[in-house]
Amino acid sequence: MEKQSSSERVRAHVFITGNVHGVGYRLATWDKANQWGIGGWVEEIPDGRVEAVFEGNKELVEAIIRWCYRGSPDAVVKTVTTKYEEPEGLKDFIIRRPSDVNIKNEPKEIKVKTINAILFVHGVIPHDCNFSETKLYDLLWEPVKKHYNLSERIDEIISVNWGHYLAETNEARLDETLSKAEEFIAKQINFRSPPHNTTNNFSLQPWWRSLVQPLQSLLFSPEIGAAIYYNGIAGKTALQLAVYQQIVEFLEKYRHQIEKNLSREEVSIKIRLHAISSGLGASIVNDFLHGLFFPTGERIRNYPEQAKEPIIASSHILAEEKQETVERYLFWCTAAQKKHLELGSIVSMASQLPVLFLSSQRVINTFANQETLSVDEIGIPQQSQEIIWKVFYDIDDLSAFSISPLFGNHPAIEDIAIQMSNNYSNYSSYWVNGIVHTHVAELLNRRVVS
């Protein structure tokens, strides 16, 4: 075949050997080909190999052939053999069964419907702000959805509220009492004036003493208070219960279809989560994803005894109060292990994860051994070279940190430092930032699968 230009269509006939049956290789190939706009098909053949045909732009076809050497997270690829043929004009990419070739001249398409759902989880909303979380989420989503036709490509929006007590609600949830408690303490302890019954024996204040009150106010900021609350068993249970309950209740509408798929050992529908969060919300989202994907990670495959590590479902407080949420969450853990629920992308703003990681003894032991965390424990394929997680932080924000170094500077994670113009204390500043909007739109465009 003559040398092709990068814009010319080519057809590659590929055979993959190794442990590539029953490990999600075909589904992962279908996912990647559709993401890159490549036509063709993929199937398992009786001799243990996977056969695929890719048609499309030469550069993209060569890229997916390189990807075939990695394949799905559980695959172990030995060889990839490629033969170039004349294109037939295939535009759609399908999964076909071996019997399809014998029954029909044309392959039978297995239609897999992907539900792209954005999960919004906010950080602490100040107790004196009567501002709903949906308005906060709209500050980011309204400008982002105008790009890349995202308003049409996103199927569901999950808007989570936690810890923010609104007067119009009938009764405060357990997590919402945090906001009321912080409001009470802030009224009782006024950092700008001395407390009652306090005698001031200093006629002249040293210059550095003027820094103490602002630092005291900072240390008792809502974000710090909520982080301390989340580090306790009761606080973690209350906040996880509030957030998890809303997520699994939303996902419940798809449960019946996925249960049918699980019983038939087929995949006709899957849910792809795109998590966007800020502040403490980013830590809650991390724990949610960790509970879903930790059992499928490489660490568990190598050290199965670590699968016994407690997750939300083992909390006796949660089990007693909201067993329904536990049961639902465990179902979605199973769905994630069976590839019916997958991670699309993560956006974290002003994350406190590096500090809150120290609440886990397992993580402490990992860091003490001079090791880093594994990205596949939160649903990111270990072999991924594509950016999946974007982390935004302002270096002047005392409660915001970079994350990538703690995951071994994995290429799937990108830390992005942005300038908030000394407005980083505003809980909505990250959500309205134009740089954040641009990056989020680009990430969703790549990671949303139709």
TrEMBL record:
Pfam families for this protein: Acylphosphatase
Tagged with keyword Disulfide bond: no
Main EC class the enzyme belongs to: hydrolase
Stretch forming the signal peptide: none
Keywords: Hydrolase
Enzyme Commission no: 3.6.1.7
SUPFAM superfamilies: Acylphosphatase/BLUF domain-like
GO MF, any single term: acylphosphatase activity
Location of the Acylphosphatase-like domain: 11-97
Catalytic activity from the UniProt record: an acyl phosphate + H2O = a carboxylate + phosphate + H(+)
UniProt xrefs under PANTHER family: ACYLPHOSPHATASE
Entry similarity comment: Belongs to the acylphosphatase family.
Name assigned to this protein: Acylphosphatase
Organism expressing this protein natively: Floridaenema fluviatile BLCC-F154
